[in-house]
Amino acid sequence: MSVLGQLRAELGDLVDTSPEALENARADKSGHRSAEAPLAVVHAEAVEHVQAVMRIASATGTPVVTRGAGTGLAGAANAGGGEIALSVRRMTRILEVSPDDLLAVVEPGILNADLNAQLLTHGLWWAPDPASKAISTVGGNIATGAGGLLCAKYGVVRDAVLGLDVVLADGRLIRMGHRSVKGVTGLDLTSLMIGSEGTLGVIVGATLKLRRIVPGDVCTVAATFRTVRDAAVASSAVTAAGIQPAIMELMDPHSLAAAHALLALPAPTPGSAQLTIQTDGPAAAVEADAIAAVLTGSGGTVAVTHDREEGERLLAIRRAMHPAMETLGTALIEDVSVPRSQLAAMFDEIARVEREHGVVIPVVAHAGDGNLHPNFIFEGPEVPASIWEAADDLFRAAIRLGGTLTGEHGIGVLKRRWLADELGDDQWRLQRDIARVFDPQGILNPGKVFEA
Amino acid sequence: MSVLGQLRAELGDLVDTSPEALENARADKSGHRSAEAPLAVVHAEAVEHVQAVMRIASATGTPVVTRGAGTGLAGAANAGGGEIALSVRRMTRILEVSPDDLLAVVEPGILNADLNAQLLTHGLWWAPDPASKAISTVGGNIATGAGGLLCAKYGVVRDAVLGLDVVLADGRLIRMGHRSVKGVTGLDLTSLMIGSEGTLGVIVGATLKLRRIVPGDVCTVAATFRTVRDAAVASSAVTAAGIQPAIMELMDPHSLAAAHALLALPAPTPGSAQLTIQTDGPAAAVEADAIAAVLTGSGGTVAVTHDREEGERLLAIRRAMHPAMETLGTALIEDVSVPRSQLAAMFDEIARVEREHGVVIPVVAHAGDGNLHPNFIFEGPEVPASIWEAADDLFRAAIRLGGTLTGEHGIGVLKRRWLADELGDDQWRLQRDIARVFDPQGILNPGKVFEA
Predict the structure, then answer these.
(1) Does the CB of A425 have a partner CB in chain B at under 8 Å?
(2) I need a labelling partner for A75 at 20 to 30 A (CA). Which of A55, A122, A411, B19 fits?
(3) Where would I find the FAD-binding PCMH-type domain in this sequence (chains A, B) (predicted)?
(4) What is the pLDDT of residues A41-52, one digit of tens each?
């Protein structure tokens, strides 16, 4: 029987070959799309469905691309010709919330925001906060090692997952990790799964480490600077002053101007850049005032508010970044990350790349943790070679500064050709060989991360 | 040429075959010792020395046991007949401290306490604080995934390492991880190395994530309870009240009595147990008072001090635990960890094991994170079979309660026979196969963790 026939015989209506479903499964939010549509989309609703798909896939040597909500930015979840798109988006149950143990056990398809809305009723939250949190799944956040705005203060996904249930390539289910705060039994496979982008197994359950809702106020500081370099130096001064903001976002002149235009606000002074900073917790007001003093001393024009709603209005400019980019053309959103002390140097490199390649690169940065999103803008659906050359130059600059290709979006298809540049050939081979232990047939998301 | 001859030809005086060195390399602090002395101890002073040892070892198929200060409690660093003991204890340099990036780059042999003494001059610290911190190395802390007293508030080793330099089995050097706060390039091999107990490679450098020294006071609360169960329930009440102490230690009646005897203090009321809790940071005093109220409400007799020295006097009873155990006989120090909500249930299980096996099991627990150290006391150097039977019963109880064999000491030789019970056979084989990718010849710490 054909692969499709076997899937249908075992999974019935969960197997979807409608043109719309197949078309959706070809792309994520990166703009990249696979060359051909996949064989089928399977909408798994339970662990057993995932196991059935993997048993059929391993018996027939059929590639499987696991998908959540398809909001990735590296093409890692794009399914192509001859592949099964395995969607876990319908697995949305919260199986347990334990306020005493500060943990929740969830299925992978629940949206980050939906989970946090439920946790709020217990006075709890799961800290990872990718900008996509309203539309991205917890499983996808884990599979990509997603970041967000709050990471410098509240950690990354790796800090917020205690254990995972994983279906292996051949359909077996294993449980990794712990429910306890501590646990060092054998190798830390939970961490290995985080950010593995569907190459090691299918995440079908997650034991999440929760936090209690932070008591106290949220205060917001917005400051404009004459140049983006001044803003970057000022953000470093905040860190150097020993204050830990919850959020510290930097918008360069291009992105600031585009966001103002989108929101119909008066145009900012040409060349000016903005820092938007939030503090939280019992010391929020004291910290906001201290930050305002540092920023003023660094040449900023500073506004402070202790009002949550007014703060949200100030942050709205930052949140308008992605829609603002869409008004300019197609955006290739990059994701380099550097040590915080190198933020100004990285902006210098971006200015150099703009000059030397004749491109404009609007940038927004999570300045608190050194993660920058340079946006390469172009016309049409395909990234032109000239843009990839500029991006290549920028990636190499980030690595030279002690940084990395990707702070929070992952490798997928879009950055696989630079992976060995950062890891070195020896480590690249070691990583690929580890992936082969999980997936000896090479059916898990082939062609992603480790080039086919 | 013999292995020893090759080592001497390349490494000269760094190769130590003195009876004392060979004898020392046979044991750690667990009390367990290898059956025979190793071939030699090599005192590596630089990365190149480690690489030379691994090249000779892989060319000749000679097993290598990496050692730091030998303070482990699972026998993981014990070197035996035909093996090379590779000591990195002399590699103690701090290569970089970056207050701006909150990171340090260090060699593996530096003692945790020596590093923290240096960091203090920068207003910084590395949070992992195993009880052995004065005598254990940073490399050993990482290789075992060491825990400590502060973990519930300040995290475990996994949360405090950004990157590692690792010499592979064949002598190649690779650099894993990042200097940036965020980074998701490929698989997270840094996390995989943490707690791998010398089975994957030799850690020769570490990029550590630092914290700023916590400002404010340290307050201490000591409370005695009628029974150990009352104390466990009270500690859960503190967590449930949403207060996060820096330290929350629980001593059962046996350990409390032994510590009092050692310190020549008046004997505690028979059967009584003690909680010793510290709060820190700007809200330390407020939190200490809130904790005191919770403990009083839970039936405790409570003393609070806002004085750091008086607090240290109260903690001295807890710190006397290990020497106190040594006065009772030989101690097999176990290390189970359970979800915090199961702490009282785990004490019930320990009481059952005591009754059913006719043994006395003094226990100290890191109550804030659910990690218990039951001490099995016996005469002579060898663990009697009857003690292992009682320990086996206790391990299985911890796993039943959703816990783990080992919260912070690791598997080594002493717990390898229970590893598959916790992981399941499928995961056990997967972990072992991953180790084989790093070490195809099986020369890295063979017979440890994954049974030979």
Answers:
(1) no
(2) A55
(3) 34-213
(4) 999 999 999 999
Domains of chain A: 3-87 (3.30.43.10), 94-212 (3.30.465.10), 217-400 (3.40.462.40)
Q: Determine the number of helices (DSSP H) and then strands (DSSP E) in chain A.
A: 16, 18
Q: What is the DSSP string of A4-36?
A: HHHHHHHHGGGEE--HHHHHHTTB-TTS-B-SS
Q: What is the DSSP string of A58-91?
A: HHHT--EEEESSS--SSSTT---TT-EEEE-TT-
Contact B249, B371 (CB under 8 A): no
Nearest-angstrom CA–CA distance, B24 and A405: 45
Q: Which two tokens stand for residue B263?
A: 């310190």
Q: Is B166 on the interface with A (CB under 8 A)?
A: no
Per-residue pLDDT tens over the stretch A127-138:
999 989 999 999
Compute CA distances B30 → A160, B33, B362, B414, whole Å: 32, 8, 16, 9
Q: Which of B185, B190, B406, B437 to mutate to test the interface with A (most CBs of A within 10 A)?
A: B185
> Nearest Cα to A44, choosing from A7, A90, A76?
A90
- C-alpha neighbours within 13 Å on the C-beta side of residue B42: 32
A356-379 pLDDT per residue, tens? 999 999 999 999 999 999 999 998
Out of A89-93, A250-254, A324-328, B116-120, least confident range = A324-328
Kind and range of the H or E element at B143?
Answer: helix B138-144
User: pLDDT tens, A277-313?
Assistant: 999 988 899 999 999 999 999 999 999 999 989 998 8
A157 by Cβ neighbours in 10 Å (0-12 / 13-18 / 19+) ranks as buried
Query: From the list A282, A408, A427, which residue is nearest B283 (CB)?
Result: A282
Q: Exposed/middle/buried for B355, CB within 10 Å: 0-12, 13-18, 19+?
A: exposed
Q: What are the strands, taking DSSP E only, across A270-398?
A: 273-281, 301-305, 330-333, 363-366, 371-378
Does residue A452 surpass a pLDDT of 70?
no
B234 CA to chain A: closest CA distance, Å? 13
Contact list, B127 vs chain A (CB under 8 Å): none
- Is B253 an 8 Å CB contact of chain A? no
Which chain B residue shows the shortest CA-CA distance from A142? B184
Amino acid at A130: P
The answer to whether the beta carbons of residues B25 and B37 sit under 8 Å apart is: yes
CA A384 to chain CA centroid, Å, is 24
Length of chain B equals 452
Q: Is A40 helix (H, G, I), strand (E, B) or coil?
A: strand
Per-window interface: A 294-333 vs B, CB < 8 A: none
Give dist(CA B89, CA B136) in Å, integer.
Answer: 10
- In tens, the pLDDT along B256-295 reads 999 999 999 999 999 999 999 999 988 899 999 999 999 9
